[in-house]
């Protein structure tokens, strides 16, 4: 029995379709985890920005700080007003994630 191999263009097209499907699945699953819910958001500004920049961004967006993260460029913020994430971006946030993801920013002390 002879094994028939499809032409390279067909293999490339099939791999591209599979890759696009995987990318869409990753984006959809990620969106569910990173979109801020319940008014709580993990706000991240540029690591090279001035200390306290994250506080200014949150204040300018009409939010309040709930907790620090151990990193000077990130904090957990809260606002019950709709559109909080959009206002954070407009105020200068580099990234706005769901507040439950703050454990990624926790620092541990090394002794």
What's this model, at a glance?
By secondary structure, the protein is of the alpha+beta class. It has helices at 8-34, 53-60, 84-91; strands at residues 40-44, 64-68, 74-78, 95-98.
Highlighted features:
alpha+beta; four-stranded antiparallel beta sheet; 17% strand; elongated
Give a written overview of the molecule.
The model has no long low-confidence stretch (mean pLDDT 81). The chain contains 3 helices and 4 strands, in the order H-E-H-E-E-H-E. The protein has a domain at 40-105. Helix 2 (53-60) packs across helix 3. It has a 4-stranded antiparallel sheet, covered by helices on one side. By secondary structure, it is α+β, with helices and mostly antiparallel strands.
How many strands, which pairing sense, and closed or not: the largest β-sheet? Answer: 4 strands, antiparallel
Rg calc:
21 Å
| Number of helices in the DSSP assignment | 3
**From the helix content, strand content and strand pairing, which structural class follows?**
alpha+beta
Strand content: 15-25%
Which sequence of SSEs, written as H and E, runs from N to C?
A: HEHEEHE
Shape: elongated
Q: Would you report the number of β strands?
A: 4
Give helix % range. 25-40%
Topology at a glance:
Blueprint: H1 8-34, E1 40-44, H2 53-60, E2 64-68, E3 74-78, H3 84-91, E4 95-98
Antiparallel strand pairs: 1-3, 1-4, 2-3
Helix pairs in contact: 2-3
């Amino acid at each position: 029995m002879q094994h028939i191999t499809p032409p390279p263009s067909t293999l490339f097209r099939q791999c591209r379709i599979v890759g696009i499907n995987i990318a869409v699945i990753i984006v959809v699953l990620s969106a569910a985890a990173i979109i801020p819910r319940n008014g709580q958001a993990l706000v991240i500004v540029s690591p090279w920005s001035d200390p306290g920049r994250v506080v200014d961004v949150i204040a300018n967006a009409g939010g309040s700080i709930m907790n620090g993260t151990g990193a000077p460029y990130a904090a957990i913020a809260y606002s019950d007003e709709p559109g909080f994430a959009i206002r954070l971006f407009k105020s200068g946030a580099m990234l706005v994630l769901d507040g439950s993801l703050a454990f990624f920013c926790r620092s541990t002390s090394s002794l």
